[in-house]
């Protein structure tokens, strides 16, 4: 067998009391795409940061191409032919592509010679790997897919033979992700070794040759991708059997709870994002809204939840109108039984520096239950938070911990617990499982189904088509601000994909 | 001809008052472009002025005075660096502390050493940087228009003034044409990008604050060893803060920084030249109003006329490796 491109032996790393990596052994064959999968916090990123010299391991050895290599800084990693594409791009936003690429590898103390060399080298790399990008474009003006390409070029420019990609598709649209995978295969064909870190099982199956699974800081298994299944990997990741398909019974919808009529919404630039949309959500059903991000779904649920003014239209909650174009505010709507799980939990749903128990009452903090005269009833708030922690299995089970210290999945559970526990009649949910681990996804999906079965009306938007298909009883597809179709839960991905791409809408217009 | 003379005098004064502003402004530019906010320009300038004047008074050498000024100023800059880069302290607090230390210690040490109420002894001409007459300044004086401009305006400033204005293209060149400049700009915007490229964030920022120290030291030297013949208590008189305003006004770019400093310098020169003189229509304007004019205009300009000034993105934030 050929020598391993990378071999890790007995890597250990602790941050304070937390052991992020324990006794990790890993071999990566040259010229392959090797996936590393695990839940958030399983230690994948830490391991790769050690390999890239960003952190130093407490114990253990690294071999690159069979040579024992000490990697004390990114410089050593670069010298050993290792390049990394970080989850959050390490780009200077107001520099040109070229400036970003040469940063740290300028060649000489004056820029003009280095820039000229970089320009021709970049041209060669672009030809070789078909990675088109304008070298003089300002990075912040490029779409994220192209910014990521700049990161890849940066690594290749430094002569990387081994490329590590940390959660590369988190910020990409499905089409951009597919393009990335084509690039990765091309790089592999050219003899590069690629390490792909992700928590998305589908990506592992789609693009890797081998896959290693991490759980709670340990390496639990390595498999040939062709010889494993999504179910096996999910079980290895979580440590127990995971239901990837949502189990649910027939919906038994009754009366209309939420009725949207001729709703139009503009965004802050004045562009019409929701254009004359009408639909109903009945008690006991989940209505999913599918669509490529940016087609008006976000503005739609913000208008319904009272966090964005609508232009025109009416929304009826239990038959009574909501003043969506005027005075409606989220507090009033909560009091009337409409709860809202916002899409962006970091900026809208939570105050990250707050303690968990404080976030678990935000928006409901004016309720008598949490008050003691004009003051907050700290005891009541904390015991209530502890109840929710237990019921929703929020980990770590510490209501005094800063919210920023919880993982994405647990943060989302904090928001869900807050919004669901006040027994709302209507639940509006945006991206419930974005950045959430497989195990927590299963839990959140079960909770949403349980809400439905209790006779609540649930309006769901998600960019994950799988999620829409497996949860919804009815699927509406939005394209360019309009609802372009309604389908049942048995609609195929291809059928919905065409609607989402506006194909039918365009044909009708012609 | 009188009118031309008046204009020339005014512009000549503008250049003289602009020099310390310009040096301090460029000093701030190096530091802030690297992501270290520096509200302590004032204090470093003052400490430099005191060290320069004291040394020049004792040794009789302007050059040794300059060396002392730069040394002390760089020392204060490194203190600021140590607090805000190594120990990740609050950069505003550290800068304010430096201003207080400089304001207090210069007076105390001045009194202790020279017993002249915080002043340093008056410097003799040899211990100062005097006006330099450029070649042909006298021969060209009679040539209409160009003659007076060359001999009055361009010629006849101290060495430090010429250095200050040469620092403008030099700083531009450093910032946009050298490896150091590229990295400096990068570390002020996204230090993580610099770190992952295998470059030390701390060392880069230390080099930037050293540049700041050198330039504020020069500014102090200009004040005490060139423009004036010795150190006077609080002689910087807020110039460090005006320089910061000019830096924002110039959006952290060297050439606009020069024009911003010249504008503020002009306002200052105008106020000095016309105080106590009756203006047509308005009549005699109170001295205090004339003196306040530069500051009032600073507020108006900064509030309304510069558009959005976007500081370096990582400015004011200590770099911590993320977990």
Describe the structure.
- The complex is a heterodimer of chains A (510) and B (323).
- Chain A has helices at residues 44-51, 74-79, 97-102, 111-129, 144-157, 174-189, 201-207, 230-238, 297-305, 330-335, 345-349, 356-359, 378-391, 408-420, 438-453, 465-471, 493-500, 503-509; strands spanning 6-15, 18-28, 33-37, 59-64, 67-68, 82-85, 162-166, 193-198, 210-215, 218-224, 256-266, 272-282, 285-290, 312-317, 320-322, 338-341, 371-372, 375-376, 426-430, 457-461, 474-479, 482-487.
- With 510 residues, chain A is of the alpha/beta class.
- The longest helix of chain A is centred in the N-terminal third of the chain and has 19 residues, at 111-129.
- The longest helix of chain B is centred in the N-terminal third of the chain and has 32 residues, at 2-33.
- Chain B starts with a helix and ends in a 19-residue tail after the last helix.
- Chain B has a single domain, classed as ABC transporter involved in vitamin B12 uptake, BtuC, CATH 1.10.3470.
- Chain B has helices at 2-33, 41-59, 62-86, 91-114, 137-140, 146-154, 159-177, 179-189, 191-196, 201-227, 239-249, 254-274, 287-304; strands spanning 131-132, 157-158, 278-279, 283-284.
- Chain B is built from 13 helices and four strands.
- A two-stranded antiparallel ribbon of chain B has the order 1-2. A two-stranded antiparallel sheet of chain B has the order 3-4.
- The model of chain B has no long low-confidence stretch (mean pLDDT 90).
- The chains are: A alpha/beta (510), B mainly alpha (323).
- Chains A and B meet through α2, α3 and α4 of A and α8 and α9 of B.
